Amino acid sequence: MTSPVDAPNAVRQDKYYLALPLGQRPPLRVIVDKRNLLANLLLLGLLILLAGVSLNTGSAASLSLPATLRALFGAGSPLDTFVIQELRLPRIVAGVVTGGAFALAGCLMQTVARNRLATPGIVGLDNGATAFAVASVVGAGISLAPPAMALTGAAVAAALTFGLTGRIGVRGYRFLVAGIGVGAVFGALTQLMLTRVSIDAANAAYPWTVGSLNARPDHAVLSLSLALLPALLAGIWLTRSLTVLRLSDAVAISLGIAAGRCRMVALSVAVILTGLAVAVAGPVGMVALIGPEFARQLSAKNTVPVVGATLAGAVVMVAADLLGRVILAPIEVPVGIVTALIGSPLLLWILLNPNARTAP
Amino acid sequence: MTHDAPACERDATQPDIAPDMTTQGLSLAYGSVAVIEDLDLQLPAGQVTAIVGPNGCGKSTLLAGLSRLLKPRGGTVLLNGTDIRHQPTRQLAKRLALLPQQPHAPEALTVAELVRFGRHPHQSWLRQWSADDKACVDEALELTGLTTLAERPVDALSGGQRQRTWIAMAIAQQTATLLLDEPTSALDLGHQVEVYELIQSLAASGKTIVMVIHDLVSACRYADHLIAMYQGHVIAEGLPSQTVTPELVKRLYGVDCTLMTDPATGAPLLTNVRRTRDVLDGSAT
User: Fold this and answer.
1) Domain enclosing residue B267, as ranges
2) CA–CA dist B196, B187 (Å, integer)
3) Which of A266, A280, B258, B276 is the most exposed place for a label (fewest CB within 10 A)?
């Protein structure tokens, strides 16, 4: 599958050249970076391992590994099967898709904004989606299903942030400042709604405000899963353009990239993923910061690790949820608090290191 | 493999003749500030054209307009008689390359990686690397003398090597027209000459080169065609030796000078450059 003959003479062989056997001349050929392939396999292995441990960990029933596996495939006792299939597995699936969605959205936004700080959470999308989802749960105003409301909220927050940024575009610092402002307004709105409703309704909505995998609205996971797959494919499709767009707009346009359209698609995908992910788990925005960074450290330099970031986000989310369930057991620490604890040092590092701030 | 490694050849779909680039009634503006209005220009094919003029005269804006970075407020830019706005950006990228002023490479990007980006318009998602790509990248590295530096990070190179890397990327793009925005700014004399000679050899191989430069003497020395801009207008154009006069220099830069002919190259040479007295006094002539 490799044909090193076709690599530039002076280039190290750090890539696979996959020839697609479709009989085309010149042959169709896709480049796969060896290091990224390894990184993604490593992350996938880590994800499966963590999912297994998570499946086997919990307070409701202490199961042996064989018992867990039997229950997973429907061969265990009814109680075990219920605990594994109805309680733990859906939660892990929710963790995988939300983590993947947040991190993919983060990776796309950071790349087109050329700034590590430009994650959906920091530019206000998480808070916008949360405010609308909470409005749906407490029954304030028009009430669509939480995923639709969260999606609307993310889109409204994005529209406000872009509107306030003006013609300067997502590159400038103004994009971040406007986003932080928009996020603060929606955060305040959420708090206001929670103080105005009955204590029961507020309790029902509370998980969203911190981020938890414990209170998933109906169909929210399904909606997100249906969106995540095409979003990931779009991300993979955009990778080549995004890699060139990292250089500069002038160079990218000169190389034939429709820079504006590429950025628009990437941002739209990020908004949709963030909205739908918030509907499942609330504003776990730190995953959008941690996941892509984790993937970048593992991946080849100067690539945009779209798949890696998605996998890493899923790993971070499942790991954080697992941690939250065990560190203070039987009390459960919401996943949003665990990721905030992990993400804060990373955020500080980015803020204090001027080189880290720009050019992810 | 049955597919022989070919030499780097220009896309067969393109006409082999060097392209004719012209503007018709071109108007360019940033927001509400008009920079260039109603400009008609002809850029000679297969030659080096230098655009000179004082700071803020609109030469970089013109280059942005020529390279579709800036959408014209009015008028058109024609490449081979076709409005560049009516060509898909990827198709145009096979005909027209731009090297912006002092571009910045991301950390740890190697010379070979950067030059490979030049092949982007010739590739697609399903055809990410071909024998053609390899030939063009190797040739671009060789033309710019970078073959042995291919694995070095771009940000670890000297200024001259770095600029050659960017030019190599534009060469790998295999366009018939190459636009350069101050390709030698921030380079020392030796590296400037290195870049200018590379540009001349590219024109000799049939490319049309348009460069914005600050240094009028170098423009005279290395360009075949000179365009002098002042306040958004072309005030003189033609062969450097016939175009540059003390009056033009005074009008462009507000300096007096003595003009000589370089005995070695025959290019106009400016000496005894000094600020015009009436400018110093603040009174116009």
Assistant:
1) 246-285
2) 11
3) B258
